[in-house]
Structure formats: structure tokens, C-alpha cells
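Page 42, continued from yesterday. The earlier attempt failed because a stray header line got pasted into the input along with the sequence. Redoing it now with the clean sequence only.
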Amino acid sequence: MSCHDVQLQLSLYLYGELDFAAEEAVETHLAECAFCQRALAREKTWHSEATSEYRDVPLELLTACRQDLRLALSRQESVPEPASRWRFRWPAALHISPTRWSYQLAVASFLVFVGFTGGRYVNSFLPAFGGELTKAGFLNPATARIRDIQPNGSGRVRILLDEMNQREVVGSPDDQNIKRWLLVAIQDASDPGIRVDSVEALARQSGNDVRDALLGRIERDPNAAVRLKALESLRRFSDDPAARNVLRSVLEHDVDPAVRLEAIDILAPLHERSALSPELTLTLQGLARSERDEYVRNRCQELLRLFNAPSGIY
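This time it went through. C-alpha cells are written below.
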């Protein structure tokens, strides 16, 4: 994608109106092009200044306007007037020749205004209702995209979502709605950073759903940093049989030495002198003989010596 193509789509990109493929192409270009990054910064500044003076219409003013309109309509009904005179008065005042097309355009413009106003009205109530609207389906994990996850202080998490418009959901990871979003984010195939952030946010959460999500990242995530972060969060499940089975599989099959070392530290921490299980002993013996990475091999040998394994087997 050229610089010209990217800059033509910057406004659509800022408002989340591009499809997935186009958005990925724009982001890939922006990551490598300083010129387009400056253009994006200018575009953001322009949009911020253009919307900085926007003010929501007070509900009291809307109510007063509706009352005035009803009063005016009631007065109009009391004075009969030929339909043709009323129908064509306002176009004549604006020096417009009324046609069928112009009436259709007017109706379409009115419907757009109603839809935009209704959307602003609903969005203004979303932060107040939060979790209830999520339960009701206003925030749908199947159609939304998670853009960012950040700690928000006091044990709360800030999740930035893209649906039609960008919005925030803020709450504690203990909250079931927040936890549900984090479990969605941990599956985000397009952004390893989001997966890492979601794993960190779930670090103190318990439950089989959290355990299974972490195990899934450890087994299948293509990014070693995500696998490593998931292993760190899995420490509190280290006594779980399913978790230990996955950790032994990581020792035997993961391609990243740092990930394998972390798995060893979880299965057999040096500061704990608990006995090695027969299965783990066999796994460590195999690695001590065949492991190519020196640090991993030395760590396996150290553990086997510490737990008095026969020296001949490694």
C-alpha cells in the first residue's frame, strides 16, 4: 500500500470504519513509514480540534422544543390551509424547486440525523450501566475488537473496545463481565500485545476457565513472549494435574529455551525440596542427555543431582 493510499484512508482508520484487511495493511505501512505517521498525527489533531467544541444538547432543551412544536402543530391544525400551500412554502422560501428527489433527500437526511442523535444518546448511558449493557448484548465480544488493556489503579482494568465506535469498559478483573472480555482478548489472533496484556490482567484470577485459557496459550500460541507470560501466570495452578501434563509437554516440544526453562522452574523450583515425580524424572533425564541448549541441559542435570538421581543416567 502506497503513502497516497494510506493517507486517503486515515480518517476511516481513526473512526474504525475499515475492514480487517485494509486496517491491517494501513497499520503495517504506518509501522514502517515516518512520513505517514506524521500525517496520522496531523489527522488526529485535526479531528480532535474539530470535535472539541461539540456539546450534547441538554434534555431540558429537547423537552422544551418538543412542547413548542406540539403547541405550534395544534395551532396549525386549528387553521385549515390547503395542503399544497403548506407543502411548498419552505422550498419557495429557500428558492428551491421541489422535486421528488429533493423530498427523498430531505427524508434521508432526517433519518441520518435521528440515527446519529440516538447513537450519541445511547453511548452517553453506556458508562453508567456498564456490565448490565454487556449482559443485554450492547457490548458483543463476537463483533467488537479489543484495542488496548491497561491497569487502571486500585486493582481495576481499562479495556478499550472498537465496535462501530471506540469505547471503554473499566472494572475489576473479578467482575464477570471484565473477566469475560479478558478471556476474549487472550484469544486475539491478530495482536500478541493484547494477548500479553490480558494474561497479565488475569494473573490473580482463579477458575478452570482461566486455567484452560492459559494452557491454551502455552500449547498453541505462536509468540514465545505470550507463552512465557502465560507460564508465569500458571504458577498458581502448578499442582493441577492437567497443568503439569502440559508443562511436561512444553519441556519436550517447545522450541524456545526460555520457555522450557520457565516450565522447569514451575515443575521443580529450586527453593522447594519436594520429591520429583517419576514422570518428571524421566523427562528431565531425557533432556539431560539430548537437550541442545546448554542452560536447559545444565538445569536438568542440576535438578537430578539435587534429588539424588543416579549419575549414570545423565
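Notes: The two ends are 55 Å apart (CA to CA).
Reminder to self: strip header lines before submitting.
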